[in-house]
Amino acid sequence: MHPLVWLAIFSVVWGAVIPFSSAKHPRSGNPPSSWGDIQKQRRLSRAGLTNDGTAALWPLPQQSNFKSKLLLIEDFRFTVKGPSCSILDAAIQRYYGIIFGKDWRQVVEKSENNATDRRIPALSRLYVTLNPQNPCSDTDYPDVDMDEHYEIIINDPTFSSVLVGNTVWGAVRGLETFSQLIWRLDDGRLVINQSMVVDWPRFSHRGLMLDTSRHFISKRIILQNLDAMAMNKYNVFHWHIVDDQSFPYQSRTFPDLSTLDIAEVIEYARVRGIRVIAEFDTPGHATSWGYALSKLLTPCYTNGSADGSFGPINPILNSTYDTLTDFFTEILEVFPDRYLHLGGDEVDFTCWQSNPAITAFMKKKGFGKDYAQLEEYYVQTLIDLLDKIPSTPRKGKAKADKHEYIVWQEVFDNNVQLDNDTIVHVWKDWKGVEWQKEIANVTKAGYRSILSSCWYLNYISYGADWTAYYNCDPQQFNGSAAQKELVIGGETCMWGEYIDDTNVLVKLWPRASAVAERLWSDQTVTDTNLAGKRLRRHRCLMDRRGIPAEPNLGPDFCQPEYSSSK
User: Fold this and answer.
1) Residue 177 sits in the same domain as residue 52
2) End position of a domain, from candidates 396, 415, 434
3) Which Cys pairs does UniProt list as disulfide-bonded (predicted)?
């Protein structure tokens, strides 16, 4: 049953009927020209509105209507109508805390002695329900095909107000939107406009890649970043766990590799509707593997003799693939998502070229001096081995999912024969337009693709650089409609050479919010002037929730300002 049909049935049963104005999101606007304009904008933004009175939601919903009539949030509670599960129950508890947190209570208590207008009708209950055809389970995991559709009706008290999720993941997204619809009057009371929201994501893969291999990123910061991702409706945490510099993953099979417990991170993400996709990049970027498994790497030679240095993973030894089979068997058990990122980028062939055993192997295989063919041989052999590893059913599922893979674009460029379900991750040419040719070639070959080329947030410029990220569209290339359907989304990337706990969140947010809206909202939502007005308020909301989002939009202020004690 389509969610709109279910909402209509629910509305009739519960009397959730409301006439709405037909106001649509405007497509034009002007930036503030003076401090007075900024002050006015801040007052409107604090009230959750833009200059035209529409709600300042982020990311912008697909469809929404708002009335000027207010409802006072008073003696409020969420009520689940129909079957529930621990995921939904936890989300409701979490958002109750976000809406009615400590700072809200202090303001309300302070305002209780003020003479205020008590004639505003109250909203005391929001019914939360799921499409009965898609009940949730305590053990559900978000996946690549998850349905995040939700609808909200905030009604006159004569009728019921409802949030309907087509699945539990849609309900989780709807609770975030509901929390953003609420604002406060000058006297501190919480209010919400009568409104309707019908929403779903434009792209199914909306990811954030975080590199934790080059500097230490604590679990506290990783979890805080997941909160920020949930607030911006991201649904994929691409975890670049290892690289040349370190191997911060604690392996049961190879306990000497490192020391990082990841179970809490996976669970924290799961209940927020965020998939955790691990990346173990090989055969390049693997120096750290050799600290514990030196025989895994290729010995490099100078003037015909081993010089004591090592290069990429050695692709010609049977022992290499035995080790990788054991290791990835564990990884596929630890990370429940059916997709695994295999890397495959930036392989330096210099060490392979110097090694006489590899040279002889190349000759035997007929590769000549084309070391891209050797990389193809390695990746193909690895994928064939991974496909033979038995899948483990996730909790609550009787049947296991088939292993699927994401690879960096070089794997495709080197003509590796990939399974049709493989996702090609396009990342090169972050300043130019070559990525458009690459993604056209990938989709023409019939592969699904995700884009990161124009969303490398570790490159920072002074000023409002968020607009460059906002203006990049992953479907903006010369290709057929069928090709563009194969672009399933993208990822913003934060590489770790110059970030750690002290600055990673500030560098990410709210710049990553710009990418989040591009991946969620309708393709026609492109006006940066209007987006900037909403993003100002959104940054302040992030600050209020304890996420240190930098002032990336010029002179302004938040009320209250960010405090690290939250």
Assistant:
1) yes
2) 415
3) 85-136, 300-351, 540-558
Cβ atoms 206, 236 nearer than 8 A: yes
C-alpha closest to that of 331 among 398, 380, 282, 271: 282
Query: Active site residue: 112, 346, 434, 497, which one?
Result: 346
What are the CB-based long-range contacts (under 8 Å, 24+) for 102-111? Answer: 103/544, 103/560, 103/566, 104/184, 104/188, 104/190, 107/184, 107/188, 108/188, 108/189, 108/190, 110/188, 111/187, 111/188, 111/189
DSSP lists the bridge partners of residue 163 as 128, 152
CB proximity list for 183: less than 8 A, separation 6 or greater? 46, 47, 48, 49, 190, 191, 192
Within-domain flag for 36:
no
HEC secondary structure over 300-357 = EEECCEEEEEEEEECCCCHHHHHHHHHHHHHHHHHCCCCEEECCCCCCCCHHHHHCHH
346 is a catalytic site residue: yes
Same domain, 438 and 510: yes
- CB contact at 8 A, 81 and 132: no
Residue 311 belongs to a domain? yes
* Domain shared by 90 and 210, yes or no: no
* Amino acid type, 200: W
Containing structural domain, residue 475:
202-280+422-529
Three-state secondary-structure class, residue 379: helix
Q: Which residues of 206-233 are buried (b: 16+ CB within 10 A; e: fewer)?
A: bbbbbbbbbbebeeebbebbbbbbbbbb
| Residues 152 and 140 placed together within one structural domain of the fold | yes
Whether residue 25 lies inside any domain: the answer is: no
pLDDT, tens digit, 9 for 90 and up, residues 191-248: 999 999 999 999 999 999 999 887 888 889 999 999 999 999 999 999 988 644 444 4
CATH of the domain at 246: 3.20.20.80
Burial class (CB in 10 A: 0-12, 13-18, 19+), 397: middle
In the chain, how many domains are there? Answer: 3
**Ranges of the chain with pLDDT below 70:** 1-55, 102-118, 242-260, 287-292, 294, 345, 392-400, 430-431, 565-566
Domain shared by 399 and 310, yes or no: yes
Phi (first) and psi of residue 208, to 5 degrees: -130, 120
Rg (CA), the chain: 26
312 CB burial (10 A radius; 0-12, 13-18, 19+): buried
